[in-house]
Structure formats: C-alpha cells, structure tokens
# Entry
Amino acid sequence: MSRESGIGNRDSGNGSADGWVAGAKPATATSGVVENPFFEYLLRLADDRLVLGHRLSEWCGHAPILEEDIALANIALDLIGQASLLLKLAGEVEGKGRSEDALAYFRDAIEFRNAQLVELPNGDFAVTIVRQFLFDAWDVLVLERLTTASKQTLAGIAAKALKEAKYHLRHTAEWVRMLGDGTVESHARAQRALDDLWPYTAELFLSDAIDAEAVGSGSGVDVESLRPRWRQTVDQVMAEATLNVPKDGFAPRGGRTGRHTEHLGRMLSDMQSLARAHPGAAW
Amino acid sequence: MVTVADSRREEILAWLEEVKDPEVPVLSIRELGVLRDVEVSGDEVVVVMTPTYSGCPAMHAMEADVVATLARHGVPNARVKTVYAPPWTTDWISDEAKAKLAAYGIAPPARVESDDLVPLRRRAPVECPYCHSVNTIVRSEFGSTACKAILFCNGCHQPFELFKSI
# Structure
C-alpha cells in the first residue's frame, strides 16, 4: 500500500491480452475453452455485484457516521440480492445443478468474472464512495439495456435492479459532490481516490467474444457503446464536485477472464470461510 | 360464471390476508403488493409472489408464512413461485393501506412521479405521521429495512420512517 487511499500496487493483475483481441476466441484463466458463453456472461454480471456488495458490507459498523453505515449496508444488500438472483439464473443456464450458494462460495478467485475495479480494497471513505459512484453510473446504463433482454428472467431481474441502481446513483453522486466540494481534506481525498480508481474503469467498457455472443442473442449489452453517456454523467458530477477527471492511460484488465489483483483472493478467503468450514449448513 | 377453481382461489386469497410483512406488520402481503396471484389447478396451489427489493431478507419469512398459513387451513401442498416482472412498485400500495402505514407511524410513499435521476434532496416535502407538520428533513436515504428512509420532524422533534417511493 504505497498510497494513503489504500489502493496502491499498480503492477498487479495486469492480465495479458488473451481473449481481448478483436475476433479472437474467448479464453479464460482456468481453461482455453468456454463451453457455455451465456453462463460466463451471467457470471460477469453477477460477480461484479457479489464482490462489490461484499466490499461494501465490510463497512458495516465502521462507517464515519451512523446514517452512512446504514446506507452502505443497504446498498450492499441490494447488490448481494441481485447477485443471488443472477447466480441462480447462471446455475440454471449451466445445467450442472449448481445453486447460487455453490457458485458464490465454492469458486476460487480464478473462476470469478468481476471487473478488477470492484475487488480493490475499500480504502478510505472517499475511495469507497467514488468507486461506488463510478460503478453506479455504469450500472444504471447496463441495467437499462438489459430490461429488454430476450431472456425474460434476465429482463425481469434487470428491471428490478434498475430501480435500486438509480437510488444508489443519486445517493453516491450526492456524496461525491459533498466530498469534492467540501473541505480541503475531503476534496484532496476525493481527488486522490478518483486518480487511483480511474485506470480500473476502462475494463468496464471492454468486450470480447462472450459479450458479443450475448449481444447477438439479444440478451447482452454492448458496453463500449455506453461509454459516451457514462462520461457525460461522470463529467457533470465531477464538475459540480470541483474534481478533475484524469486522463485515460494505464488500463489494467483481465478480471472478466479470471485474472485478478492479489486483493480478490484475500477477500474471498474471508467471504467464503464460513460456507467452506460448514459445507451444506443451513440457517 | 364462477367456477370451482375461482371460488377456491378467492378462499385462498382471503386466508392469505393473515400473512403480514414481518417488518411492517400492519400490511398484509396483498396490501404491500408482494402477493401477485394464486393459481389453482386441481389439488395444486401456486402462490405467485414478487420481491420488494432484490435482497429483501423478509421475503424468505413471507414465503414460509404463506406455506404455513395455507397448511393450517388444510392446503398442505402449496408452492410459492417468484416472479420479477413487472417489477414491484410502491404505487401498488392502495390509499387505504397507506393510511394504515401512517397510523402505524411510517410516512407512506408518495406516488412515483418520474424515473429520472433527480437529486434526492429536491423532492416534495414529507408529512410527519405524528404531528402532520411538513417541516421535516431527510436524515438518511436508507433506513432500518431496504424499503424505508429515516426522517426527522422539526415540528414535534421526533424521528420517523418513510416508505421509499420506487
């Protein structure tokens, strides 16, 4: 951890270009063959939410004020709920009898398909809020498109999640404004968080053959096309927050094919420990 | 023409009025809008439900209550089917049910006016369920459950909860 914001270590997780070359066959860190592309696609949607939801839940009992403690726990609950619905659907699509719990608790880091942005440590409150805002602004656009997915269960989950995501975005946008246009200290921390997180947002807009297949079947989102609208929201809120949007440059990637930063494994060792110590246990 | 299945369905819907939201025990699951339908075919009873929020932990309790309540009324094999579309909205809560919420001390949800991303703090004033003052402020956009926010009344100096409009 070289920086106070707690992100640091920019060398980790910069995966190779496998699977990201236009026209190339999708490959993952676990195998060169993708048997079921739509299952993979659903994991990408679900794992962003599961991992970010767990990160937010780490704030429970630690947030700077009680109201925000409750807010972060509520947003975590929504994201984990969405992940649960999506993983259940993924399990059905896979057709190997894996439940949402099996997929959440009995896959290793290399089998996770979330973007690296969501697995980074929480850092300080500014890092958590800025990351959440950057994600929410993207998430609303993704879910909007998925409400017309040809797979009806996915469209239904997206319509429900979209209402929640809009509420999250309004809340986090408000906080970005307050932190950026707040005190000298809160401004500096928010700007540092934005600078550190910015490179990791690039991965949200990358697509490969798995995305293309989902888009082709009418149940996926062309994420690259969302970027202008996302930038519009981000630029507007950052201007109001008196924060400078960094230049694009260094862009780590690989999360979507199972190449993660060192942080995901540590997070999972905490998140999965109970389920693995007592497999099959029920409340 | 009223068929046997129709009257059976009405009977089951009446029994399900006993099932309340565990977090808001003045509303039945029908009044809340979570109970969508009951499908009867022969001996098979399927209760169709939709969640309020994706991660609402009370859903499991409500589903278990539905099955237990029907078993008590001699329907041993009822099954719950969860649907996500159309997505749940607080606009499904009737005026009568909203009055029950206010009497219980929870400010009822306003009608969902727009789906746009209006900043949260610029919404219409909320009336205090205790003293009816509109001199109230939002303390927290999120509350003790996924469906509520926390407000404070400057009139009677009392905190209260608001059912969020979604």
The longest strand of chain B covers residues 35-41. Chain B has two domains: 4-88, 94-163.
